[in-house]
Amino acid sequence: MKKFAIAAATATALTLTMANVAFAQTSQAPMTLAAGEVTKAKETTTDTWITTKVKADLLTEKGIPGTDIKVETNKGVVSLSSEVAVTDAQKDIAVAITKKIKGVKAVSADGLKSE
């Protein structure tokens, strides 16, 4: 009878151990999937990101009055404007820089005052 009880206890312990291992293995899959979804979310560009990137690139470009150029983005369409007059060459450079930014669909420089 003692041998039967020991055998039964051992079988129960092994079953519970295997169940825990199986549970641990299946619970990992949703975590991996969730991490993949987070990575995909980071790949999309937002209007705020586009505006920040355009502004930063204009500020670092020599010969462009980046501090005087206002940048607004709506659904990937970037509008450049300024209160200070810019040359046609500066306007062309600002538009070219803006068009290179990931996520930019179109650029409007109508708000940039010409000299």
Write up what this structure looks like.
The structure is a single chain. This protein has 115 residues and is α+β, with helices and mostly antiparallel strands. The protein folds into two domains: 1-43; 47-111, Alpha-Beta Plaits (2-Layer Sandwich), CATH 3.30.70. Helix content is 59%, strand content 16%. It has three helices and three strands; from the N terminus they run H-H-E-E-H-E. The protein has helices spanning 2-43, 47-60, 88-99; strands at residues 69-74, 77-82, 106-111. A three-stranded mixed sheet has the order 1-2-3, covered by helices on one side. The N and C termini lie far apart (103 Å).
What fold name goes in the CATH topology slot of the largest domain? Alpha-Beta Plaits
Radius of gyration: 30 Å
Order of helices and strands: HHEEHE
Counting DSSP H or I runs of 4 or more residues, the number of helices is 3
Main sheet: strands, sense, barrel: 3 strands, mixed
The count of domains is 2
**How much of the polypeptide forms β-strand, as a percent range?**
15-25%
Shape: globular
Q: How many strand segments?
A: 3
Strand order of the largest sheet: 1-2-3
| Termini separation | 103 Å
Low-confidence segments, ≥5 residues, pLDDT <50? Answer: none
Q: Tell me, rounded to a whole number, the average pLDDT.
A: 78
The SS-based structural class is alpha+beta
